Amino acid sequence: MGIYGTKMYIVVNNSNLVYVTAAKTAKVLKAITLNQPRSVVFYKTNAFVTSYNGTVSVIDTATMAITKTITVGSSPEQMVVANGKLYVANSGGLDYPNFAKTVSVIDLTTLAEIKKVTVIANPIAVTTDSYDNVYVLSLGDYDKVSAGMTIIDDKTDVVKTAPTVSLGYNVPIYAQGDFVYYPTADNKIAVYNSKTQTSASANFITDGTVITTPYAISGDVLTGEIFVADAKDYSSAGTVTAFDKNGKKEYVITAGISPGKIALINK
């Protein structure tokens, strides 16, 4: 799910649909058919949607029509826009146990893939900071290759480092200000300092609040708040907890089953 301007784009993987709705009312404006769509991001007049058939579809945000299809790697998941380029995590999820280990780099002027960057196997989640870094979280192969983080320089598209991190099976990642937030194997929310490129904290949450199954992370740049979705047991109602910038709980919202994305809109 993503909000861009007055529209909201809802990616419905198993139904092979992307719903375009009015952002404030959720009234459906158009349903776009795509093969197993996975994620959506935006740049200028386009929305970009990954599909598990190894493509990124370019959707004109005015006409809501697909204008181009870009071939990338196997089973692409999340994307991020950085320095005029689109970085696409090619997971290879449908090719288990032979996971992919690349991030496709797409030039957003030509809308063509210009290279692939090798990362840890099974990349899923990506984000970017204000210091020319793209962060990639990978799940590994669940056997010999451990889950981990890869950091790419978005000026050169060269891997800068792969810091040692502890990751679980859910790997949402979110950057806000000088910090990058991601869940650890023991379900804490770790913080990485993007300015100093060092670990900032093993757990952002400072008041003892427990998140059972971190499933999505987002924030409000105006208030500094961080929001964490908890999928609990994946079968009962999940929650979204709001924390202040110091990691203290403010309030909790009951959500549906497995809340997997948080998007904010101004009233």
UniProtKB/TrEMBL annotation:
PANTHER family: DIHYDRO-HEME D1 DEHYDROGENASE, PROTEIN NIRF. It comes from the Bacteria. It comes from Mucilaginibacter humi. InterPro entries: Host-pathogen_enzymatic-act (IPR051200), WD40/YVTN_repeat-like_dom_sf (IPR015943), YVTN_b-propeller_repeat (IPR011964). This is YncE family protein.
